[in-house]
């Protein structure tokens, strides 16, 4: 069992995991941007789009097309953080 589940106090990871499980259970049709905005409500729409672009680059299935870690570190979304 994950360490944050066994703790007696709740923290942001517990809340995130709970929300993620609810999402999986309900199967809401989220886009990556709306998923980010749902779980990080204080993020602007523009920033959610930039984060989604970064995440899509990270999870590219084809290893030959996936950017290297060095390339990902140069992503504008990370550079603006």
- One letter per element, helices H and strands E, the order comes to HHHHHH
Q: What is the radius of gyration computed over CA atoms, rounded to a whole number of angstroms? A: 15 Å
Count of alpha and pi helical runs: 6
Provide the residue-averaged pLDDT.
Answer: 77
Which overall shape is indicated by the principal axes computed on the Cα atoms?
A: globular
Low-confidence regions: none
Helix/strand/pairing class, anyone? mainly alpha
Domain count, please report it.
Answer: 2
Helix share of residues? 55-70%
Could you please describe the fold and organization of this structure?
The chain is mainly α. The protein folds into 2 domains: 1-30, no CATH class; 33-81, no CATH class. Helices cover 62% and strands 0% of the residues. The protein contains 6 helices and no strands. It has helices spanning 3-6, 12-26, 32-39, 45-58, 69-73, 76-79. Helix 3 (32-39) crosses helix 4 (45-58). The longest helix is centred in the N-terminal third of the chain and has 15 residues, at 12-26. The termini are far apart.
């Amino acid at each position: 069992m994950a360490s944050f589940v066994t703790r007696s106090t709740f923290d942001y990871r517990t809340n995130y995991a709970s929300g993620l499980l609810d999402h999986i259970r309900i199967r809401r049709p989220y886009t990556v941007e709306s998923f980010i905005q749902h779980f990080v409500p204080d993020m602007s729409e523009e920033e959610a789009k930039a984060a989604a672009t970064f995440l899509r680059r990270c999870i590219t299935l084809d290893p030959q097309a996936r950017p290297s870690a060095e390339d990902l570190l140069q992503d504008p979304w990370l550079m603006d953080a």
